[in-house]
TrEMBL record:
Signal sequence coordinates: 1-19
Binding note for cofactor: Binds 1 zinc ion.
Domain Oligopeptidase A N-terminal: 95-195
Reaction(s) this enzyme catalyzes, per UniProt: Hydrolysis of oligopeptides, with broad specificity. Gly or Ala commonly occur as P1 or P1' residues, but more distant residues are also important, as is shown by the fact that Z-Gly-Pro-Gly-|-Gly-Pro-Ala is cleaved, but not Z-(Gly)(5)
Residue span(s) of domain Peptidase M3A/M3B catalytic: 270-719
SUPFAM superfamilies cross-referenced by the UniProt entry: Metalloproteases ('zincins'), catalytic domain (SSF55486)
Protein name from the UniProt record: oligopeptidase A
Names of the cofactor(s): Zn(2+)
UniProt cross-references to InterPro entries, sorted A to Z: M3A_DCP, MetalloPept_cat_dom_sf, Neurolysin/TOP_dom2, Neurolysin/TOP_N, OpdA_N, Pept_M3A_M3B, Pept_M3A_M3B_dom
Species for this entry: Agaribacter flavus
Family to which the UniProt record says this protein belongs: Belongs to the peptidase M3 family.
Assigned EC number: 3.4.24.70
Keywords annotated in UniProt: Hydrolase, Metal-binding, Metalloprotease, Protease, Signal, Zinc
Cross-referenced PANTHER family: DIPEPTIDYL CARBOXYPEPTIDASE (PTHR43660:SF1)
Amino acid sequence: MKKLSLGALTVSLSLVLNACSRVEQVEIPNADSTPQEVQVNVNDKNPLLAEFSGLYEGVPAFDKMDLEYLLPAIETGIAESLREHDAIANNSEAANFENTIVAMERAGQSLQRVFTYYGIWRSNMSSPEFREIQREITPKISEYSSKITQNAKLFERIKTVYESEAFSSLNEEEKRITRAYYNNFVGNGATLDEAGKARFAQINQDLAELHRQFGSNVLADEENYDIFLTKEQLDGLPESFVKAAANLAKERGQEGKYAITNTRSSMDPFLTYSTDRALREQVWNNYYNRGDNGDEFDNNEIIKAILTLRHERVQMLGFENYAQWRLQDRMAKSPENAMTLMEQVWPAALARVKEEVADMQAIADQEGADITIQPWDYRFYAEKVRKAKYDLDSNEVKQYLQLDKLRDAMFYVAGRLFNFSFSPAPAGSVPVFHEDVSVWEVKDKNTGKFIGLWYLDPFARKGKRSGAWATYYRSYTTFDGETNVLSSNNSNFVKGAEGEATLISWDDAETYFHEFGHALHFLAANVKYPSSHNGVRDYTEFQSQLLERWLLTDEVINNYLVHHKTGEAIPTELVNKIKKAASFNEGFKTTEYMASAIMDLLYHTTDPALIEPDAFEKAQLTRLGMPSEIVMRHRSPHFQHVFSSEGYAAAYYGYMWAEVLTSDAAEAFASAPGGFYDQALSEKLVKYLFAVRNAMDPSEAYRLFRGRDANVEALMRDRGFPIDSPDS
C-alpha cells in the first residue's frame, strides 16, 4: 500500500519515529559528547553522514552504501541532533518563532540524511545482516526521540511561542507547524511528571521493538513460503505469468520450475487463473496466514502486547483509548466519526457481496464443480463471472498494460495537469541502490525550471517488503533557500521474462497511478518549511487515489494502452467493456478493505485485556456479518500498516475517508467543460490540493477547490451502491 519510508521523515517534527526498537536499555551519546567521542574510524569519511553531492543540488550516495557505516552514522547523527536541540532549549534569548520553531526545522539534518539510507535497507534491500544491525539501532532512535520530546526547556520555549500574542500574527503555515510542534510534545508526554516521562519513554522503547519484531516476522513468512511448480501444475495460468514465474524460480536456484512467491503480486493472479483448486487453497493459506502459523514468527502475542502498551500510554495522557488520541488532529476528529462513515457504506458492500457470490456459485453449479465458494475460489470464479456478464477477460486486458507504456502515460498526465516533463537522467549521473532502479529529471514544461528527480524501483525481489509505496529523499522548501525534490516510487511487480514487456493487471495499473500521485504531491509542493510535508493521514491518500481516475481517460487509453506484441491500440469494444464493468466486484474490494479498517478501529477502542487477537478478529467479523467467502485485506497477524509502526494505527479508515473526497472531486472533473483535462480545474487541483501539502487545513483546501464540502453520496454512486443502503 501507500506509505512513506523513514527516508521521508522530517526529523525535527516527526520526533516519535515509526522506526523499530528493542526493549533493552542502550546507552545513547549525550548532548555534550563531541562527534569524535561517538565515532569509530569508519566515520572519518562516512558517506551516510555526508551532505548529498554531485549533480542536481546533490543526491544520495546510494553507490557507497555499506552496512558497516550505518550504526556509527546513526550514533553520530543522534549526538549532533541532540546538541542542536539542546542549543535551542538553552538559548538565552526570549523564545520566538525564528529562534525556536525555525531553529528546530533546521536541526537534525545529518540524521535525516542517514535515515534516507536506513529507509532503503529497511524497505528495499533488507537482509539478515541488516536486521541484526537494526536490533541495535532502533532502541537508540526511540530513546533519542524521547530525549527531545521530554526536554522540558525545549517544550517551554515551544509553549511560549504557541501561547504568545505574536502567534496571531504568524501566517497560516507558520501557525500550523507551531501548533503541530506543541501538540506533538504534549501528545508524547511533555507535560507528565518525571516518573511519567520515564515510563512513557520505556513504553516507546518496548513498542519500537515489538513493531520491529512484527515486521520481521511478516517478512520471514513472505520469504519462507515460496511454492515451486512443475509444468503439469500450470493449467489456466497466462503465458506472461508462467514466464515470469519461471524467471523467479531461476533466481531462486530452481531453474526448470515455476515460483509462486508469498506476495500479493504473485498470489493474486495465481488465484485468479489457476484451475488447480488444491493449489489455490495452498497459495491462499500461505498468503493469508502470514504471521499466524503458531511458530517462531507468529504475531498474535506481539499484537496483544502492542495494544496493551498503546492503551497504557494514552491513558497516561488522559484519553480513553488509543483511537481517541490518534484521531484528534485528523479530518475525522474522533473514532466515532470514522466509524460512522464505515457504517454508512458497510451494509451496501455486504449486499453487493451476496450478489457476487450468488453469481459465482451459479457458474460453479452450472459447470458441475460440486463446490461451495470458498475464499480461494473468489478470484477464480469472479473472473468467470466477469467474462459471462461483460465478456471481459482480465488476461486479455493485461496484454495492453505494459509497465513502461503505463509509466509514459503517467508522464503524459503529469504534463497535462502539472506542466511537468520527464526525461531520463544521463547514464551514470545519479547513483542508485539496485540495478532495477531508474531515474528521471523533472522540469516545468513552460519555464524549463528544474523541479527534481523521480526514482523508480518497480520490481519484486527478496529482501524488499511487499506492497507499493512512495517516499522522498529531499522535499521542497524555501526557508533556507529553494530546494529541489528527490521523489521515489517503489512497487513489487513481477518482472517479465528477459527481453519481454512486463505486463500487469488493471488493479496493479491503478496502483501504479496511485503511487505516482504521491510522487506528484511531493514534486508539486510549494511550501516554506519541512514540517509542512507531514500530512494529515486521512487526507494524504486523497490526491493519489484521485490520480487513478486518469487511467481511464480517452487520452491515456488511445495512446498508451497498446498490445505488447503487435503494438496495436486497445480495441474500442474492449475499452467499452472495461468501463461498463468499472464497478464489477466492488463488493469484494470494498468489503475486504473495510473489514481491515473496522477491525483497526475496534482494536484501538477496546480494552486490550479483553482481546486475544485471533479470537477477537473472528468474533468481531462474525458480529459484523463478514461473508465467509472473503477475509480481511490485511488479516491482523500481518497487518503491517497498524502493527509494524504507528503510521496507520487507528487510521486505516483514512483510505475510505479520502475516497469520499476522491469520488466527489472526480465528479467535478467529469462535469467540467474540458473533462479530466480541464485547464481551469487542473490549476485549482494543483494550487489547492497538491501544492499546499499540509500548510493549509485540508478541509479548507478542499472547499477552495470544490466550493463546498465533499458528499458521501458521490462515493456510493462511484461504487454502484444504492444511496439508501439495505440494513444487511
